[in-house]
Amino acid sequence: MLAGVLGLTMDYQLTVPALLRRAEALHGAREVVSRQPDGSIARTTYGAVAVRARKLAVALQQLGIARGDRVATFGWNHGEHLEAYFGVPALGGVLHTLNVRLHADELAYIATHAGDRAVIVDAALLPALEAFRDRAPFEHVIVVGGAAPAGTIAYEELLAAADEAAYVEPELDEREAAACCYTSGTTGAPKGVLYSHRCLVLHTLSVATVDSLAIAEREVVLPVVPMFHANAWGLPYAAAMAGAKLVLPAARLDPASLLELLASERVTISAGVPTVYLALLQALDAAPGAHDLGALHTLVIGGSAAPQALIEGFQHRHGIAVLHAWGMTELAPIGTIGRLPAALAGASEAERLRYRSRQGRPVPFVELRARGDAGLIPWDGSAYGELEVRGPTVASAYTDGDGADKFTADGWFSTGDIVTIDPDGTIELQDRAKDLIKSGGEWISSVALENALMGHAAVAEAAVVAVPDERWGERPLAVVVLRDGATATATADELRAHLEPGFARWWLPDEFVFADVIPKTATGKFKKTALRDLYRRP
Ligand code: ADP
Q1: Do 378 and 488 fall within a single domain?
Q2: Domain range spanning residue 391?
Q3: Mean pLDDT of 317-324
Q4: CA–CA separation, 371 and 529 (whole Å)
Q5: Per-residue pLDDT averaged across 93-107, rounded?
């Protein structure tokens, strides 16, 4: 029973179809631009996307897909993927974006666990799909952007046969599931996260706000972050709601192709993981002035810690601001954003840079706290604790009751990330709990060491991992990839000397290993489990 008086406002359901109706009615002519498999550019509009999304909903229903059913996608960032982002939830279905970079065994597990009844796949990715198709529950395989072999359905033919007028928007409850993603499974089996319509709409609103990513109608947004990874950080929905032009790069994520697209489409905001932008910065530095990036004002970088040198490089050498963001699949995914507070407007350049390298403050309605050995830690910028969050965009459980230990008795989600919290609520991520290095009973932050190493001019990438040590329990070891042609300029001694002024002696890595590459996870992060195994000394 309600103790108070019911307000007299509409019980309007916050749903993905409501987002689509808005995009169509207000921004129907605004462009959606996609890179094609042959490298050419295709142009469509939110208006056309809306029509085709409804056709997709009708066609899927005719194939027997019903409310609550899972429909997978297995594709890169392009207009048809956007149609699925809207079309599947438009029939009350659940969009399940499969990560194309995962191993076939993992994909088979995830598709089966989710119960995906159909999959929409890029023609170029059919061989990868074949590697697990017979172990997945797909009843229908729908092929986009190329020929549909026997036993599959051509996406364009499916849409051509669908009657848009047959679409009836279901009366959705905003609490119904609209999409699902799986966590990476670096610790145990992948776990399913099920987003409600309400969660996706509130996430769209909160990331679009001015102190978040400031997605306005005048912007041109290019998500490098794949649409198969954590809803592409919510950017496709946010761009559609605001009416920002959307530019989708498909599989062409190499620096040359990205630079060309950023320049030719006059992109203003782009977003992705640090590795992508490290490569982009190197390319920009190598040929300054070769690309007109005059329109580009913001890069949203997250997924793993953005090194300070990366933020500084874009800001100082190219006049492009970096917004550092932290998130997780379980948060739909954005949790915090490092927008510079007004109080620091007059601070020194070094101080402002230091702030921007932190992960920032929570987006609206995400609340945070952190827990150390002796309970919740103070917001003093120095105590370490595991970050806990709650809010309307945070998972309340994993599917099938998996991972129940990640949720506290009083309803918060334990992130597994170790942070410090400043008095103003800004978090600085020190490590994933499982990556922290414990030496002689004290914690060493691998992220801080990596950040500093990547600030050395000769270093392209650096990962620091714990190796077992008889005396100290664990000691840090640094794996370093040098920039092309920089071999002569960085020895282990030199890198140690570079770190010395910033760290206590016992933090300095005992060993520096020079490698050609650092293995990456399916989401482009350093694969620390592999590094630890590789460099574990007998
Ligand atoms: P995956 O496990 O596949 O990487 P997620 O995208 O959910 O899946 O990863 C979330 C994790 O990524 C966070 O828990 C955190 O450890 C890390 N992370 C995300 N953003 C940042 C950031 N800006 N700085 C440091 N770590 C980050």
Answers
A1: no
A2: 365-432
A3: 97
A4: 25
A5: 95
**Do 90 and 179 belong to one domain?**
yes
Taking a C-beta distance cutoff of 8 angstroms, is the pair 326, 428 a contact?
A: no
User: pTM value?
Assistant: 0.92
Choose among 450, 443, 456, 417: nearest CA to 504: 443
14 CA distance to ligand 1 middle (Å): 27
Q: What DSSP character marks residue 407?
A: B
* CA within 13 Å, CB half, 187: 9
Q: Are 164 and 151 in contact (CB under 8 A)?
A: no
Distance (Å, whole) CA 511 – CA 508: 9
* Ligand 1 and 529: CB distance under 6 A: no
Instruction: Reply yes or no on whether the pLDDT at 537 is more than 70.
Output: no
Q: Which of 188, 209, 244 is the last residue of a domain?
A: 244
Mean predicted confidence (pLDDT) in 361-365: 98
Please state at what angle helix 274-286 crosses helix 255-264, rounded to 10 degrees. 80
- Cα 195 to Cα 178, 286, 379, 398, distances in angstroms: 6, 42, 30, 10
Mean pLDDT (the chain, rounded): 95
Tell me the average pLDDT across 78-103. 97
Average pLDDT over residues 144-172: 97
Whole-number Å distance, alpha carbon 514 to ligand 1 midpoint, is 25
| 412 and 469 housed in the same domain | no
Q: Is residue 114 within 6 Å of ligand 1 at its C-beta?
A: no
Question: Mapped to the 3 state alphabet, what secondary structure does 216-241 carry?
Answer: CCCCEEEECCCCCCHHHHHHHHHHHH
- How far is the C-alpha of 292 from the C-alpha of 519, rounded, in Å? 32
d(CA 531, CA 277): 22
Cβ of 398 below 6 Å from ligand 1: no
264, pLDDT greater than 60:
yes
